[in-house]
Amino acid sequence: MAALDAVPSPGAETGEAFLRLSGVRKSYPGVVALADFEIEVRPGEVIGLVGENGAGKSTLMKILGGVVTPDRGTIQIDGVPYDGLTVAGSMRAGIAFVHQELNLFDNLDVAANVYIGREPRRGGVLRLVDTPKLNATVQPYLDRLGASFSPTTSVARLSLAQQQMVEIAKALSFNSRLLILDEPTSSLPIAETEKLLEVIASLKAHGIAVIFVSHRLHEVVAACDRVVVLRDGRLVGTLEGDAISHDAMVRLMVGRDLKVAYSPPAIPQGKVVLSAQGVRTPTYPNREVSLDLHAGEILGLAGLVGAGRTELARVLFGIDRPHGGSLTLNGQRLRLATSADAVKAGIFLVPEDRKGAGLLLDFPITENVTLPNLSAYAKNNVVSRDAERKRAETSRRELDIRAVDVSVRTGSLSGGNQQKVVLAKWLAMQPKVMIFDEPTRGIDIGAKFEIYRLMRQLADHGVAVLMISSDMEEVIGVSDRVAVMHEGRISGILNRDRFSEENILKLAVGKQL
Amino acid sequence: MLKKDLGLLVLIVVVGAIVAIINPRFLSTINIANTANLVGLFGIFAIGQGFVIITGGIELSVGSMIAILGVIFIDMIANKGMPWPLAAVLVIAIALVMGLVHGLLITKLKLQPFVVTLCGLLIYRGVARFYTADATAGFPFGVNFPDLEWLTTGRTDIVSNLTGGAVHTLLIPHSFFVMVVIAIIMWIVLHRSVFGRYLFAVGKNEEAARYSGIRTTQVIIAAYIICAGLTALSAIYFAMYTRSILPSGHGNFYELYAIAAAVLGGFSLRGGEGSIVGVVLGTILLQVLQNLVNLLGIPTSLNFAVMGSVILIGVVADQQFGAYRERRRIAEAARHATQPETSPAE
Lengths: 513, 346
Known about the structure:
- The structure holds two protein chains of two kinds.
- By secondary structure, chain A is α/β, with parallel strands linked by helices.
- Chain A folds into three domains: 18-94 and 178-184 and 206-254, P-loop containing nucleotide triphosphate hydrolases (Rossmann fold), CATH 3.40.50; 270-346 and 431-513, 3-Layer(aba) Sandwich (Rossmann fold), CATH 3.40.50.300; 356-429, no CATH class.
- In chain A, the strands form six sheets. A six-stranded mixed sheet of chain A has the order 6-9-10-3-11-12, with helices on both faces. A six-stranded mixed sheet of chain A has the order 18-21-22-15-23-24, sandwiched between helices.
- In chain A, strand 7 (121-122) and strand 8 (128-129) form a beta hairpin.
- In chain A, helix 4 (131-145) crosses helix 5 and helix 5 runs parallel beside helix 6 (190-205).
- The longest helix of chain A is centred in the middle third of the chain and has 16 residues, at 190-205.
- By secondary structure, chain B is mainly alpha-helical.
- Chain B has helices spanning 3-22, 29-54, 62-79, 84-107, 113-131, 146-153, 158-162, 174-192, 194-204, 206-210, 216-242, 254-264, 276-295, 303-335, and strands at residues 137-138, 155-156, 172-173, 244-245.
- In chain B, the strands form two sheets. A two-stranded antiparallel sheet of chain B has the order 1-4.
- In chain B, helix 2 runs parallel beside helix 8 (174-192).
- The radius of gyration of chain B is 22 Å and the shape is globular.
- The interface between A and B is large, with 44 and 29 residues.
């Protein structure tokens, strides 16, 4: 059992660093995820870690958690150097994580969750759970966090912030000295965020160090003593005390080289094809979204994770019903009861979740390509395998899908080739509107550029293209216009002359330009 | 024919051969004809069950539907004087409505198929017993329906007919013919039609199917309707085969025969996998096992135990064989490991 009272860690009085990273580097084939990284963590310190998607935050967290071993550099814990951490070593060193997605059993109570797999026993051979002891053990953690619920409360009845407190209590029960909170506020409503910031303050008071990873910069300003900014895997700046400000962070985060070269449209922007007026999505039922999408343009839809972009795409594709508002396609009122209606209208979606929603991984390439338009390959409702195969062969040639044969399982292809199969599904039909949700996430650089080229080709054929992307480089390099979403509404629309990382980021975090 | 189906066929032949060696009566024309009749009766609704299982669902009310629809059918033609074709249409129509209701409850109200059809199982059984006041439904003495009887319980020696009676082979029961015709139609529907592909897609990954613009709720509802329709047809055949129905016992556990046949035939209860050939072969194996119990002098009380053991052995063998093939495939891939064309997916 863990020690319960908040014993200050060794060195707390002197404020000496117990964790030191120096010269840490990690690269993956073709990309340097983290280079020359240095950090010192002292007890009771709250350190903000900010940076755009792909800046190297996840890699750093994986290194601290012992999940990946750095290629170079040293990690010192209490002055003892290690070449790399193991997961067990990281836990022994008192490093604990609270991830964005909560890993709780909501059918169990709070105490059971905190000590899951480590329950105190009684009753000899019967090995019963010693519930009174369990509850008594958990209570002090909850007290320390200022929780208003008891160890016997069912997790299902807690709010998100309270559930996060359970996760934190669980992390603390491992005698943690350093707690890493990964995007803890991204799913919380504002009022609950306040509560979490209080929790961080009380952790600090107990001498526990916190690394706070967040996109919500005003919370970083409110919570942190020190902010570390990452960009393209490099430490680009550290801000301390009063120097921590919204603008200072944004200045450091942006300003990298953009490698995606913009290819301008070959045809002038056409008339409005798809128009959403006052549409409200199920996730943000009280925020209205209005957006016009023109023929021949690529409209980038930027914003932070959870800003409501995917939810908007789901409504535009008929997966979710909008709460009010209206859609028009070429001036005609559009009613989408199911995705089948959207497909019939020529609105296609390449979803974010390629493996779960974009493809049937167990189906061959052929059957994935023909699935949305299967009747076209059938006579009297009987599918012609020859026609299907011909179509798939054509798609394979056109999109350069690298596969031994079109009859192979789609799941056996690489990420980039899988994505091309998803594209092939829709390109085999006549799209009017194509929505891409994070089209290049997790795919290799070659396939990425091919997808950009295809998007431009589609637009030049008069298709209206909406591209949801969290990759700043992609948003700026590919789009003709950019709409930015913040917490369920469009916070601004930029034309190319006003494109800049700074502008987009400002709108994404909810600031005015 | 899939490898799995072939394996099942081999198993049937091996079991049949062993039984035939111990008791040659297994191959007598009358025994084969009787077994074929049962294969026909059970096969018709087992195929229907297969459609539901492909979607990842289950239909537990089959046995109770056979009881209530059989009771209604006999009552209509024997007591109410309704012409039998009309009664048949009526019974099938009732079943289609039942299937529609199951499908709607499962898709629109998002209830679990197990729960919905379990309630169906209880409700239909209860109503069937109430309908006859728990009495046996049967035909009064001397009442006959020659056309209907020919269609359902009749038997024809095709070879004899073709050769003008010169060569006699076995009398094939018409129920078996009907099952074969249904199997062929349903094979085309499941394995060759647009709807069939949708069924596999919905069963494998409903989300991905929806993101391909497939009306997944309609596909699932259709599966339950097809299942109910085929069940109604087999209910008429069972009614004519038994000629009297005790509503408390008629069709008991038949849903489990259908599920067992599908599982033996390579269906996954998770959905998205299965074949018509498989479910028909599964039905044949189950009937051969029943037959085996009778012919080998095994106490009839052990009937279910034999069936359960064989199914268990079958799925364990299949699972182990699948795991073995997977290991071999990985070992093979490891031997041929070369540089991939593009960087691997992360």
